[in-house]
Amino acid sequence: xxxxxxxxxxxxxxxxxxxxxxxxAEGAALCYxxxxxxxxxxxxxxxxxxxxxxxxCLGEYMEYVSRxxxxxxxGLMLSSANKLAEAGADFLISPDNTIHHAFDLVAPxxxxxxxxxxxEVAAVAKSRGYRKLGVTGTKYTMEGTVYQQKLAAAGFEYVxxxxxxxxxIDRIIMDELxxxxxxxxxxxxxxxxxxxxxxxxxxxxxxxxxxxxLLIDDVSSPxxxxxxxxxxxxxxxxxxLP
Length: 242
Known about the structure:
Structural class: alpha/beta
Number of domains: 2
Shape: globular
Strand content: 5-15%
Helix content: 40-55%
Radius of gyration: 18 Å
Order of helices and strands: EEEHEHHEHHEHHEHHEEH
Oligomer: single chain
Number of strands: 9
Low-confidence stretches: none
CATH topology of the largest domain: Rossmann fold
């Protein structure tokens, strides 16, 4: 495949080929759709970069995640990364916040460069002038170190929900959202959690699970949202453009 592509009859440099290391179907689909939906504004009618996705099943990932076996998670991510490299991808993204706990085990061994989802969220938060962020996601994201370390390093304060709220948010994600189930009462619960974060001084909330944006957005959230799924997709799109 040559380095150029025809756009409206004009030869232009071909965009980079995006490789998506997927984990949960709903979040990966949202990421893919965002790239395809927003690319035409930048590239022309019906245009988007070449995209290849590989997905090991969520159940395999969760076997490792539930045991805090991040080496096992890294193995699955590398398996996908290698398949995507063979398919011709130029760089990689993973629209799954939880498995980024294994990122430091993956990146040095990966065949291609990656964009890190939390780096992209932090960059957007800084560009919008936010200073204190609420963090939502799976229990592994809310109780782990990936967001916490990177947000602190970027100069942000952050707040996570209390233990009972963390447990309920994790249940909503794993029992409902990853299965495409979107319950009004779950939206109300998240709105209440985010409302409490606003009273704790947060000026934005990170939707740090790729499925949460399917349930709540800027219209329904008491705080401005940092939609990690769409932020990563937009960063990948920008990175792909010549």
